[in-house]
Specification:
The protein has about 190 residues and is mainly alpha-helical. The longest helix has 23 residues.
Length: about 190
Amino acid sequence: MSASALSPDLIRRAQQSDPQAITAIYERYAPDIYRYIYFRVHDAELARDLQSDVFLRMIEGIGRYEDRGWSISAWLYRIAHDRTIDTLRRRERTHTIPLDAWVETGEDQDDALELSVERAALRRAIGRLSPSQAQVLRLRYSYDLSIQETARQMGRSQGSIKSLQHRAQLNLARLIAEDMGGAPGDPYSFA
C-alpha cells in the first residue's frame, strides 16, 4: 500500500476510533517508523518501545490531526523524531561505554579506534545540526530515500529539500572539522 493509498476516509474513520482504520495505518507505517527509530538509537528493544509509543500517541492524538498539506506519515515521523530525540537526550546524560568496546585484539586496534573517534565526531556533529538538517541527512543517507521521497516525508518541496540537504552537508563538514581539530575541507567535506 503506497502512502497515497491512505484515503481521507481512512483517516476520518481512524479519528472516529475505527479499529480497522487504525490497524491499516499501523500496518502501513509501523515498519518504516521502526527503521527510522532503530537507525537513530541502534537498539532493537528500545526501537520497538519507541515505535509502540509513537502509535500510542497517534491513537491518543488522531482526533486532533488535521491535513494541512502534511501527510499522516509526516505527522507520524514528527512524533517518532520527537520521541527519539527525547530518549537520546536522556541516554546522553547517562551514557556508558561497555568495557568490551575498548578491549580489542589483533592488528586492527588502531584502525578501530580511529573509526570510533570519527563516528563519535559524526554523531556529535549531527547532534549539533538543526532538527530539520539532521532529519534530511538521515532520510537521504541512512534510509537511502530519494529527494522526492524525502520531500514527501518531511512535507516540503523537492527544491527546499535539495537546499536543506546542501546546507546540512556544509554545516556537517564544518562541525566535523571543528570537532576533529582541523579546517573545513578534506577529508570530511561533503560538498
